């Protein structure tokens, strides 16, 4: 007697019927971003966009609390001299950001943390057109 393979094998991905909408009901924004540097810059899907490489020029205060609206594990690449429009989505979870370029290091919704982050933009020389 030949054993029939199981419909469920280890590692199988089982998808529910219907359509899955990514980042549903989250605030979204569109920003124009220019790479003023001399090297390519790549930004991953879950990086706090406000804190990306200082050679990228855009309205940083508008990007505070947002990340790229792209699938997890993907990235957007900016070549030197490139200007492109990106879609951002509000960060979720406990909305705490630590590390990265050390501009925030705290709760995104804390007014003191936000004020300090805006001050750090200028102190550390991040490009900003906002």
TrEMBL record:
GO molecular function, one term: urease activity
SUPFAM superfamilies on file: Urease, beta-subunit
EC numbers on record: 3.5.1.5
Localization: Cytoplasm
Keywords: Cytoplasm, Hydrolase
Pathway as given in its UniProt record: Nitrogen metabolism; urea degradation; CO(2) and NH(3) from urea (urease route): step 1/1
Top-rank lineage group of the source organism: Bacteria
InterPro entries in alphabetical order: Urease_beta-like, Urease_betasu_sf, Urease_subunit
UniProt record, GO biological process: urea catabolic process
Top class in the EC scheme: hydrolase
Keyword Acetylation: no
Catalytic activity from the UniProt record: urea + 2 H2O + H(+) = hydrogencarbonate + 2 NH4(+)
CDD domains assigned to the protein according to its UniProt record, in alphabetical order: Urease_beta
Entry GO terms, CC: urease complex
Family to which this protein belongs: Belongs to the urease beta subunit family.
Self-association and partners: Heterotrimer of UreA (gamma), UreB (beta) and UreC (alpha) subunits. Three heterotrimers associate to form the active enzyme.
The protein, known as: Urease subunit beta
Protein's organism: Vasconcelosia minhoensis LEGE 07310
